[in-house]
Amino acid sequence: MSVMVVGSVALDSVETPLGRATEILGGSAVYFATAASIYTKVNLVGIAGTDFPAEHIQFLAERGVDIRGLEVVEGETFRWVGRYDFERNITQTLDTRLNVFADFHPKLPAGYESSDIIFLANIDPDLQYEVLNQVSGAKLRVVDTMNFWIRGKGESLNRTISSVDIVIMDESEVRLFAQNQNVIAAARSILTLGPRVVVVKRGEYGSIMVSDTDYFIAPAYPVLQVKDPTGAGDSFAGGLLGYLDQTKELTPNALRQAIVHGAAVASFTVAEFSIDGLRSLGREDIAQRYQELKEFTHFDDKEST
Amino acid sequence: MSVMVVGSVALDSVETPLGRATEILGGSAVYFATAASIYTKVNLVGIAGTDFPAEHIQFLAERGVDIRGLEVVEGETFRWVGRYDFERNITQTLDTRLNVFADFHPKLPAGYESSDIIFLANIDPDLQYEVLNQVSGAKLRVVDTMNFWIRGKGESLNRTISSVDIVIMDESEVRLFAQNQNVIAAARSILTLGPRVVVVKRGEYGSIMVSDTDYFIAPAYPVLQVKDPTGAGDSFAGGLLGYLDQTKELTPNALRQAIVHGAAVASFTVAEFSIDGLRSLGREDIAQRYQELKEFTHFDDKEST
């Protein structure tokens, strides 16, 4: 079993009310791969510049991530500079330099095309579609996106979304894409395009999963101190799909469990800068939070009259 | 068993994206009493003007609500005029006329002082404290409040909160009151003032319950079409405390069930204007949504490896 991810590899500079960090390891493919590799074999597709520190590549390789798909080309790695204002709930992008990422065209090394699960992280929907055409045999194709592509490449995004099994998006993105303020109605309208499942991320409020036959309200793990929210969504997807790949089944029940695994993994991500909260994270740590979430959400069937 | 509520009795004029209604029955005490009377005996304390339609008084009386505590005095009933913007998630108050409510001092008719549960809806914290002094024997004292009192009468509010068992507040109010952006940390700091339980309302995201020994993440029932959010919080509290009064036990488990009952009741409230969604609501309708919420939130303990 294996999961393939296509996305960004970045060096982030982040400021939050709890600190600041410069040129740290980031990018959607990196967060996803770090999380999913706790569960299963990950095939990574991305691009970095020659300035990308070797230690980061080594870190991924040591987790068993197949990094043959990480193209390293002359030039600078993608940079993102951002600031979080928790009080006003704002993420401010101060600088984005695409650098080598601007000319990225995903190339799949031999063997990647037989990955069981494909995760198309938030990149140009035309590139996402290019990838889908190279992996026609995958059991599960999953896509994420963002407001930028919804506004700027709506038709391309429609084509990509119509070709996948699961859509994972933020609540505001689901509303924007479907042009419907009611998030449940919005998610349902996405189902009519083709996907079997829509997972709506709601940050600290958890997530919901909507399919034709199922509706699941998933909790977020309560984090007393969020240090850096970067990568929460991608590591959520990584935990979710990593778990799903390893369970080898795609039942509604397995999907619910996978979403809770994703929530548990994301709670470790946001407690530290970069992927530091995931570096030494093991299955037992996740299992513990999974059990806690079970207890936090439990209420009896029987009335206690 | 009985629940007493002290709060406003109002005539609301409301505009939402789904319609508009003028001079409809409203007020925190009315929403609470209508909801709680599905479960138990309610003793209402409030004030109305001589213009308050007799049919509303009759409606409450027919539900078995004790309305001896509803003082009717010369003058006009409290009026609220508001508009909801769902797109921007804004509640806009266009006009507030306190009228007879401006000189309200809660007077408890004989027998009210032996109510088992006391709900102090969102009114001046000094009045809330006056009421507490008249009901020293209550098993459970519960308070709600709002930003207006947190900002304007902080010390009085502290005194009231220190004297109750359960605090029910909106998320933004909990943050403002505790001066802490992290809602869990904020709720915990309220516990240090004396209350045993803090219930944090999060609108469409559900609620959380925090105590020294328990943490509960409660879902909201997914409502596909919200017509009028007015009274969601008060009918949530009404369902919660009505259920709790009727179960006659105050275990953590009963409290969890009660919160889910509150969520189910509130979901009926917001589907119609005024209390219309609750008029013919029965225990079976609530039980059905309770079961659905159980299914919507369920995930297995066992991993399916």
Could you characterize the architecture of this molecule?
- Two copies of one chain form a homodimer.
- Chain A has 305 residues and is of the alpha/beta class.
- Chain A has one domain (2-296): UDP-N-acetylmuramoyl-L-alanine:D-glutamate ligase (3-Layer(aba) Sandwich).
- Chain A is built from ten helices and 13 strands.
- Chain A has a nine-stranded mixed beta sheet with strand order 5-4-1-8-9-10-11-12-13, with helices on both faces. A four-stranded mixed beta sheet of chain A has the order 3-2-6-7.
- In chain A, a hairpin with a 2-residue loop joins strand 2 (10-16) and strand 3.
- In chain A, helix 3 (125-134) packs parallel to helix 5 and helix 8 (232-247) packs antiparallel against helix 9.
- The N and C termini of chain A lie far apart (49 Å).
- Chain A binds chain B through residues 86-87, 181-185, 202, 204-206, 208, 215-219, 222, 224-226, 246-247, 249, 251, 253-254, 256-257, 259-260, 287, 291, 293-294, 296-301, 303-305, and chain B through 86-87, 181-185, 202, 204-206, 208, 215-219, 222, 224-226, 246-247, 249, 251, 253-254, 256-257, 259-260, 291, 293-294, 296-301, 303-305.
Structural class of chain A: alpha/beta
Which pair of chains has the greatest number of interface residues, and how are they split between the two chains?
A-B, 44 and 43 residues
Quickly give the CATH architecture of chain A: 3-Layer(aba) Sandwich
Q: Strand arrangement, largest sheet of chain A?
A: 5-4-1-8-9-10-11-12-13
